[in-house]
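Supplementary Methods. Inverse-folding protocol.

Structures were first reduced to a discrete structure-token string of length 358. This string, shown here, constituted the complete conditioning input.
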């Protein structure tokens, strides 16, 4: 690799990292706000919140990496123009094709990395996110218990919580129906207070009532404290990723065979999307060079605004195409690939104009 190529690649590193970080943070804002609520109000530990955010990152990065590449390259080559480095490259005999060669190479590598994310990292990340969320829900009562809400998804119990009090959010006024397969009526437990500890629910100062097959009370009693372990139940949970967006292309192709026509359209849209979005990295990277090189008056603000316009236009066209394809108005391939085709044509036109000047 030539020294000048290594220099260009070295110069785009920090701007691209900045661009990817910026767009990733924008995508994460809503999630971060929700996580802050979990820390402050619901008592979830910061470590668990950071773990949750880490599992959110791969799906977001698959979308923000092309955007960050585009912005970073625009910032780099606008700097080359302002400092006359682009002019010096032309003076030593470098054509526009020579200048963009390392950019195209890096875009191809990044595209392959995004495919790797989609196929290997994202499905595992989403599965781990669901598992961790479920684990927190069973270890921390505040995470899933709500006032005046009937909960019927906790092992063999149905729960009703009247209110949550204090910093620890202890449950007050608890009504529990303990289900049994061989009995017509459940055991009813009425408790004053409950809290969760070590994946178990601890009831205090509670009464229980048993009924016969005719619904007549046959036994009642009370206890100061009762511990209901849920660890065994939680260990049997099998997390299945049902969201097509979280599955890799190979998995989608295998599952698509057994689907009806409407479901196949949804799978086909997602498969084409998972191909089109990573490949847009190459067009966006080249377009970033062509839009910024040679414009002496363009600063960081102008490049940032232009990158937002291009990215917003691409995302808008992609979403419109996906919606129209999902409704059967246009073919799936046309709906998903139209933004890439438009990007390619714009890139080609601007390249020809720039090649005549540089």
């Amino acid at each position: 690799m030539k020294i000048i190529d290594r220099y260009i690649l070295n110069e785009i590193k920090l701007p691209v990292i900045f661009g990817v970080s910026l767009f990733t943070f924008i995508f994460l804002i809503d999630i971060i706000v929700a996580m802050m609520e979990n820390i402050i109000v619901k008592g979830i530990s910061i470590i668990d919140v950071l773990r949750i955010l880490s599992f959110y990152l791969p799906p977001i990065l698959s979308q923000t990496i092309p955007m960050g590449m585009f912005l970073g390259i625009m910032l780099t080559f606008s700097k080359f123009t302002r400092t006359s480095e682009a002019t010096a490259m032309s003076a030593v005999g470098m054509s526009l094709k020579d200048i963009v060669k390392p950019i195209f190479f890096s875009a191809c590598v990044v595209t392959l990395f995004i495919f790797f994310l989609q196929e290997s990292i994202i499905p595992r990340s989403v599965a781990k996110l669901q598992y961790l969320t479920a684990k927190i829900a069973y270890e921390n009562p505040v995470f899933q218990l709500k006032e005046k809400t009937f909960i019927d998804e906790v092992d063999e119990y149905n729960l009703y919580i009247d209110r949550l009090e204090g910093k620890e959010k202890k449950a007050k006024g608890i009504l529990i129906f303990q289900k049994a397969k061989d009995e017509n009526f459940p055991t009813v437990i009425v408790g004053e207070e409950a809290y969760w500890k070590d994946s178990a629910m601890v009831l205090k100062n509670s009464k229980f009532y048993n009924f016969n097959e005719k619904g007549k009370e046959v036994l009642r009693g009370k206890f100061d404290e009762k511990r209901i372990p849920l660890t065994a139940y939680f260990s049997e949970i099998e997390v299945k990723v049902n969201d097509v967006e979280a599955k890799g292309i190979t998995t989608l192709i295998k599952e698509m065979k057994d689907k009806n026509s409407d479901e196949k359209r949804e799978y086909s849209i997602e498969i084409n999307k998972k191909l089109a979005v990573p490949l847009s990295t190459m067009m966006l990277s080249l377009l970033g060079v062509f839009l910024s090189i040679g414009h002496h008056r363009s600063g960081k603000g102008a490049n940032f605004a232009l990158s937002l316009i291009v990215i917003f236009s691409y995302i808008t066209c992609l979403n419109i195409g996906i919606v129209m394809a999902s409704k059967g108005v246009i073919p799936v391939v046309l709906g998903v690939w139209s933004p890439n085709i438009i990007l390619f044509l714009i890139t080609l036109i601007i390249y020809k104009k720039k090649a005549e000047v540089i």
